[in-house]
Design brief:
Length: about 425
């Protein structure tokens, strides 16, 4: 168990590291432009997850993991005897087959493989919940926050990376044409990246780890203050509005929880859906009033492009990870087309890439979850608090579903639904 625990803590610590190997780069070009999002990658965290799964299957818990997987398959087989469930299963299989006929089928299938790996990872760690009770897992979260903060301070002070890419996965901060920039004391400065691919991702992962520590682990007051200072420092240096909003919403919801106002917790799914729908509309409205703001106008153009793409591919979408293959055709903003980025909204990105079928699959999953969790308990309130706090990352960015390492983080959150002792 010690080796598996070490691997699990390593997964947590190395998840923010943007270390990967590229494959089939020749398939990532669209109209002569190479798009990074279309390159199949094998991340360092992928290797750690695979090793963790192999050791888990070979351990004494391996039989339990296999029996859990078999139970899921038996449940699926039983559900298939009912027409509505059979329809949902057939639709899901049809959706998978559709990925072979997308513009870039290789990246779509690679995404499905990552989803499958993340699903098996979920089953494995749920079958070994004793691993969550280990203090070393808590220390891994703390160590990751401290490490990213210290590295961020170095990058900010010296305006350069600590080491070449192959060591930590750092972005070359001296390549000014390819990095983000902020205004600091009337001069242009490069915000810290940590070991991630973007300052917003750095601030986001540090904030998510902070929420995990606060809600799922017990840490002493001194460590709590230290972690708070780290999170605030990273958000300040990166100037990440989305991460700041996560922290603000979290504080507000904690105050609501202490006041025993449970109306929100009884309607949090409807609240999340409302926010996911309203924010793109507000973003487009703000873009008309502040056309000089690149951050707002880019997001607005990409939001509009996502809706147009969905209207063109209403049933199956563009295919998983294929948004950037179509975005140039649906935006008149040349800067957005040149960067060819995914829409900065996980709901619109999922809609554009999977269509109505994707919405149906997500809705069906929520339906099954609701059937199995009719009673609201304290753990449900914790899940609601964490997920709702993360809404800014969902409506102002895309990396939660476009960056495959974060799929493991999402499934890790699902596995931690029951609070460790």
């Amino acid at each position: 168990m010690k080796l598996r625990l070490f691997l699990l803590t390593s997964i947590v610590f190395f998840l923010p590291f943007n270390l990967f190997l590229k494959f089939f780069e020749e398939t990532s070009f669209i109209n002569g432009l190479q798009i990074d999002y279309l390159i199949p990658k094998l991340y360092l965290v992928d290797c750690l997850v695979l090793l963790f799964l192999v050791l888990s299957l070979l351990s004494k818990k391996g039989q339990k993991i296999l029996s859990t997987s078999k139970k899921y398959l038996q449940t699926l087989s039983a559900l298939s005897k009912q027409p509505i469930y059979l329809f949902a299963i057939c639709l899901s299989m049809l959706f998978i087959c559709y990925q072979f006929f997308t513009v870039k089928p290789l990246i779509a299938l690679a995404y499905i493989l990552h989803l499958t790996l993340a699903g098996v990872f979920l089953i494995a760690i749920k079958s070994q919940k004793v691993l969550f009770n280990q203090s070393i897992l808590k220390l891994s979260l703390v160590a990751s926050i401290f490490f990213q903060t210290i590295l961020s301070l170095y990058q900010w002070i010296f305006q350069k990376s600590l080491l070449p890419y192959q060591y930590l996965g750092e972005t070359d901060l001296t390549n000014y044409s390819g990095v983000a920039k902020v205004i600091w004391n009337n001069t242009i400065a490069v915000p810290p990246y940590g070991t991630t691919a973007h300052p917003n991702i750095l601030a986001g992962i540090v904030t998510v780890y902070f929420l995990l520590l606060q809600e799922y682990f017990q840490i002493n007051k001194i460590l709590t203050v230290a972690v708070w200072l780290c999170v605030i420092t990273v958000i300040f240096l990166t100037q990440s509005i989305s991460a700041f909003l996560v922290l603000l919403i979290y504080i507000i919801l904690k105050l609501i929880k202490k006041s025993n106002i449970y109306f929100f917790y009884n309607h949090w799914i409807a609240g999340m859906a409302a926010v996911l729908i309203v924010v793109p509309l507000l973003m487009n409205l703000f873009a008309t009033f502040r056309p000089s703001s690149d951050s707002i106008t880019r997001r607005a153009y990409l939001n509009t492009a996502a809706v147009k793409i969905w209207l063109t591919h209403p049933f199956f979408g563009t295919g998983l990870n294929n948004f950037t293959t179509e975005v140039e055709r649906y935006t008149y903003n040349q800067e957005s087309a040149r960067f060819a980025q995914p829409v900065h909204h996980v709901g619109l990105l999922w809609l554009a890439e999977t269509g109505i079928i994707g919405l149906f699959i997500i809705g069906f999953i929520f339906y099954l979850t609701a059937l199995n969790n009719k009673k609201i308990d304290q753990d449900d309130h914790t899940v609601a608090l964490v997920l709702f706090s993360l809404l800014p990352l969902m409506v102002f960015d895309h990396y939660l579903i476009s960056q495959t390492p974060f799929l493991y983080l999402a499934f890790f959150l699902l596995a931690m639904r029951s609070k460790p002792n």
